[in-house]
Protein 1
Amino acid sequence: QVQLVQSGAEVKKPGSSVKVSCKASGATFTSYTFSWVRQAPGQGLEWMGRVIPILDIANDAPKFQGRVAITADKSTSTAYMELSSLRSEDTAVYYCVREVAVAGVVPYFDYWGQGTLVTVSS
Amino acid sequence: DIQMTQSPSSLSASVGDRVTITCRASQGINNYLAWFQQKPGKAPKSLIYAASSLQSGVPSKFSGSGSGTDFTLTISSLQPEDFATYYCQQYDSYPYTFGQGTKLEIK
């Protein structure tokens, strides 16, 4: 069955970086694209960007451009999200989300990872 | 960015009720509208894509409709497991954006 397994919780200092991984199984990795969505405590959902593994192309939300790097490793079927220059407002649960990418159809979300809590605190 | 506005922000209903949640986009989104369900402490679950298409394994008690800028999620015959927070999302253009959420509570 499809699984997206994310790396464990992180505690980081302001100004540092964090890299969260998302290992996909149960389907051909390059047949899909992957987005990252975050959720601050008690808040709603915020899209950060996405990666197209088969093309090695990423699209980032303007809010995070210059601070986020979303990549994919086809050899290990793993997507990554690295966020730099961390501040307290980046404290959130970060989710990877698989997108169904079928020719002629705009990719849409289907499976979600379990989430990774990143806490930014001095 | 496209703004997504859900109403109501919260809703109280009883087991067995039928409820409708509305989502309005600030501009047309070509029906690239999805709905998600989230329970406390859990990852969201995908329910609907393309405004009205059910994700695999989602029961038919969930239905979506709408076009252009106005969309609805209807849940029929509410059961205890349906009480959760629901989000809409547009994926017509970057950056993808979500509604603020609708918390469905037991009356």
Protein 2
Amino acid sequence: NAGVMQNPRHLVRRRGQEARLRCSPMKGHSHVYWYRQLPEEGLKFMVYLQKENIIDESGMPKERFSAEFPKEGPSILRIQQVVRGDSAAYFCASSPGRQWPQHFGDGTRLSIL
Amino acid sequence: ILNVEQSPQSLHVQEGDSTNFTCSFPSSNFYALHWYRWETAKSPEALFVMTLNGDEKKKGRISATLNTKEGYSYLYIKGSQPEDSATYLCAFSNTGNQFYFGTGTSLTVIP
């Protein structure tokens, strides 16, 4: 059973471009969570999704950031018009339900030039 | 933004020593408390999820307790081994569907 798959592992973008980060949850997991780790900081909750629904996006910046988890395909975290401050590691996790442990992917390291 | 605090920030122990760390979280609107182990260059690995006041969980030499009324959880490692060296994270989940991670306790076990 494959774990949580995130791609790409590393992503380099120039300021003003768009970044799309993908997360395929573990088989059977319908709950997906995105976290951001800024340099020298801990994991910060961004958004919690269930298939086709955003459950909570209170940790996500209101502008330029969006997330989706369509019926088919991976969850996508999209950052438009990236700025230097978006440089971070973005982790995705999945679980069968909210009271279950979360299984993490290896993260996507986003670097903004 | 809610505060989840972990102490100590870092810890060095000798192989064979037992150790424990603390996670403090808000006592209101509690839903669940998670513990994760995060080794360098890997992704966080789930240890426990606890939901009930007084819960105690055990996995090998690692155990955890939960007090939701006063807002703390302890993680214990008995007879530490070098492979236990990692950062141990706790995450508080409230009834509002958010998850708040502490900054972790970095454990180094010296052979």
